[in-house]
From TrEMBL:
Protein name: Chemotaxis protein CheA
Signal peptide: none
PANTHER family referenced in this protein's UniProt entry, alphabetically: CHEMOTAXIS PROTEIN CHEA (PTHR43395:SF10), SENSOR HISTIDINE KINASE CHEA (PTHR43395)
Xref: Gene3D superfamilies: Histidine kinase CheA-like, homodimeric domain (1.10.287.560), Histidine kinase-like ATPase, C-terminal domain (3.30.565.10), HPT domain (1.20.120.160), SH3 Domains (2.30.30.40)
All residue ranges annotated as the HPt domain in the record: 1-103
Stretches that traverse the bilayer: none
Source organism of the structure: Pseudomonas thivervalensis
Keyword Lipid biosynthesis: no
Keyword Kinase appears in the UniProt entry: yes
Modified residues (Phosphohistidine): H46
Key words, A-Z: ATP-binding, Chemotaxis, Kinase, Nucleotide-binding, Phosphoprotein, Transferase, Two-component regulatory system
Functional description taken from the UniProt entry: Involved in the transmission of sensory signals from the chemoreceptors to the flagellar motors. CheA is autophosphorylated; it can transfer its phosphate group to either CheB or CheY.
Any one GO molecular function term: ATP binding
GO BP annotations listed: chemotaxis
């Protein structure tokens, strides 16, 4: 097994568990006595600690162990989650994340990280009733006194005996037996260990991938039984694990010895003595090895008694899910983790396959071979299905990104001294994973900006007749082949007079120049523009909104802003569903070919014979026209019969006048270079089957250009209704 790969899996899964832990901590503030949420927090910490022990991450194990002990107190109702405890564990969650990331980079914690960890440990130990340690360099574990109440101060008070018979498939499943021993040593001192090799077959019959070992371990520790049992969580299902606590009674010794493999029964006493484990004086080993005979009168009762093993497999609560444990296991086994780079490579290969298929289809048509044309048509259909399946693999729900802002809103609201509630809707909306990753930072800035500038303090809201608690809303939905993400607040809205005054002061607008509200709103996206009276930790430096717009534009997206003073602001980010492959509609103008995203095409009509038209009456609606021949300065005379492709973006329609309609076309999007990146009306290019290049039209930019020229920018309606394609 490649341990580097295994550790990388541990890193990824630990970060996921930390995100789940953070979500649960944010939820626990609303329902502090929810046992399911408390158990979820405990399981996340416990799993991270157990996995970290397998890789020898001692700092992470020691720190998480103390946090786990506090959570155990919460589970036992000795402590309760309040605002202070939740805030502490959010910091604990952050520190565990720092340690996990350091492990990912194979780096040791710096002094500042150790100091921060020591401060958190002090806070946790106070909750356990232990004295904080002055030296924060070592992250030693201090157990609560309650965990040691059942033992005495003698040398045997903390002596445990652990009997292991490892399953044959342990190595094959990627487990390292020594890793469990190393992790066990982090909880105490291993006095003696005896390796058992009785099950080893002859060398000729030995399977190098099978494990034949067992161990008898004498172990001194002040940890409780649940903590020691947790060491073996990952192997309990296919291995025999028996743990004898200090001062165990006769029946417990008998049960452990009788559970050993038959050929090892007579060696039980030797193993116990060699490991430093002493039986009670009244226990006779030979007597312990003989099956017990129930006394008369107890036989009927004891025949019905089932002796449970010391460690029980982790149980799955299926009552709330309606699934059986078998269904859950099958569901878990049906999921696999795939490296994002491999998906990107798959998409690239599918794109090349589409281009090659288009070339084969063109060659078949030129050759006039009907059978070959039919074969390439079937191939094109199959390639399209492969494309859709491959793109589906990259699609993820945006809800997980939205949920991360619960923590941002909580922390920023406390920093600002405001009461703000985050509402999330449309979390099930899917879009390309790359888009999700690259939209996270712009969204963070917009959320923080809305909380700082948009939502007023409670006293001002109450004076204005608003609820004291501000409302911030994140929403997502699909619209005409795009995804729209809304960041809305019920704050004070944008002050147009203040924005215009600031713009005039900075020379962005001439004195006396008349601007509609939408143009004034768009001024906030200018570099360095800010209306904040003073600089704060969050904003006021004029850096951010211009970067937000630039990053969104780089994703072939756009930003729209609506605001009503005194009522709030809504900012909409409109993005393509994918950055890789789309369904396109190919048109021709002169000798050039252009591709229009098919989701934005509403219908195609023939252009009336009248010349010089800038608008068209389309069933009673005014349709502005864009002549691509004039826009791109294409030489030559127009076709005798021109066509109009009606496109729609953000509720606004326009007509593109073209010479020829060439039909649907699977389009592999290629980005433009830096030299052509700012060309208006072009969003990229693709390669045709003939090897020629076709430009992909930026419909959003063209529609906005038409709206600006007609002075109708402010009247663009935002609708969520579906577009009917003719």
């Amino acid at each position: 097994m490649n341990l580097d790969d295994a550790q990388q899996t541990f890193i990824v899964e630990s970060l996921e568990l930390l995100q789940q832990m953070e979500d649960a901590l944010l939820h626990i503030e609303l329902t502090p006595d929810d046992d399911d949420t408390i158990n979820a927090i405990f399981r996340a910490a416990h799993t991270i600690k157990g996995s970290a022990g397998l890789f020898g991450l001692d700092d992470l194990v020691a720190f998480t162990h103390v946090a786990e002990s506090v959570l155990d107190r919460v589970r036992e109702k000795q402590l309760h989650f309040d605002e202070a405890l939740t805030a502490l564990f959010l910091q604990v969650c952050d520190h565990i994340g720092v340690l996990v990331k350091l492990a990912a980079d194979n780096e040791q914690p710096e002094a500042s990280v150790q100091s921060r960890g020591g401060q958190l440990l002090d806070s946790l130990r106070r909750l356990l009733g232990a004295t904080p340690e002055s030296d924060h360099q070592g992250l030693s574990v201090v157990e609560p006194e309650s965990a040691r109440d059942h033992v005495t101060d003698s040398s045997e008070a903390h002596h445990w005996h652990i009997s292991l018979r490892l399953g044959h498939g342990l190595l094959r499943n990627g487990m390292d037996p020594l890793a469990f021993i190393r992790y066990l040593s982090s909880l105490g001192h291993i006095c003696n260990i005896v390796t058992l090799s009785d099950s080893l077959p002859p060398v000729a019959e030995m399977d190098p991938e099978s494990c034949y070992l067992g161990f008898e371990i004498g172990f001194d520790s002040s940890a409780d039984q649940a903590t020691i049992e947790g060491v073996f969580d990952f192997i309990r299902e296919d291995s025999q694990v028996h743990i004898l606590a200090p001062h165990s009674n006769t029946d417990e010794y008998r049960q452990m010895i009788q559970a050993l493999p038959q050929e090892s029964l007579r060696m039980g006493e030797i193993f116990l003595l060699r490991c430093g484990t002493h039986m009670p004086a009244q226990v006779d080993v030979d007597d312990a090895l003989r099956p017990s005979v129930p006394r008369q009168g107890q036989q009927a009762i004891e025949q019905e008694t089932v002796v449970q093993p010391t460690i029980q497999p982790r149980q799955i609560d299926t009552a709330s899910t309606g699934q059986s444990a078998k269904d859950i296991r099958q569901s878990q086994n049906s999921l696999i983790r795939i490296d994002a780079g491999k998906l990107d490579q798959l998409i690239n290969l599918v794109g090349e396959l589409i281009i090659a298929g288009a070339g084969a289809n063109l060659a078949a048509q030129n050759a006039g071979a009907s059978a070959l044309v039919e074969a390439t048509a079937v191939l094109a259909r199959l390639v399209e299905e492969v494309r859709d399946s491959a793109l589906t693999l990259r699609m993820v729900q945006i809800g997980s990104t939205f949920n991360r802002f619960q923590r941002v809103v909580r922390d920023v609201a406390k920093e600002l001294g405001k009461d703000i509630r985050l509402e999330i809707s449309g979390g099930e909306t899917e879009l390309d994973k790359t888009v999700v990753e690259r939209i996270s930072d712009p969204l963070t800035h917009l959320v923080r900006n809305a909380m700082d500038h948009g939502i007023e303090p409670a006293e001002i809201r109450l004076a204005q007749g608003k609820p004291a608690q501000g409302r911030l809303r994140l929403n997502a939905y699909h619209d005409a082949g795009s995804i729209v993400i809304e960041v809305a607040d019920d704050g004070g809205g944008l002050n147009t007079a203040k924005i215009l005054s600031k713009a005039i002061e900075r020379g962005l607008v001439n004195e006396g120049q008349h601007l509609v509200d939408q143009d004034i709103f768009n001024l906030i996206f200018e570099p360095g523009f800010s209306t904040a009276e003073q600089v704060s930790n969050l904003s006021g430096r004029g850096v951010g909104m211009d970067v937000v717009k630039r990053n969104i534009t780089a994703l072939r997206g756009s930003v729209e802003l609506d605001s009503i003073e005194g009522q709030g602001t809504t900012l909409r980010i409109r993005l393509p569903l994918t950055l890789a492959i789309i369904d396109g509609f190919r048109v021709g103008v002169g000798s050039a070919s252009y591709v229009i995203p098919q989701d934005m095409v509403v219908e195609c009509i023939e252009l009336p014979a009248n010349e010089g038209l800038d608008y068209l009456n389309l069933r009673g609606e005014v349709l502005p026209l864009i002549r691509l021949r004039e826009l791109f300065d294409i030489a030559g005379a127009a076709a005798r019969r021109e066509n109009v492709v009606v496109v729609q973006f953000a509720g606004q329609r326009a007509g593109l006048i073209v010479d020829r309609l060439l039909g649907e076309f699977q389009t592999v999007i290629k980005p433009l270079g830096k030299v052509f990146g700012q060309v208006n009306g072009i969003g990229g290019f693709t390669i045709l089957g003939s090897g020629e290049v076709a430009l992909i039209l930026d419909v959003a930019g063209l529609v906005r250009q038409v709206a600006a020229q007609s002075g109708a920018t402010r009247s663009i309606p935002i609708r969520n209704d579906a577009v009917t394609r003719s």
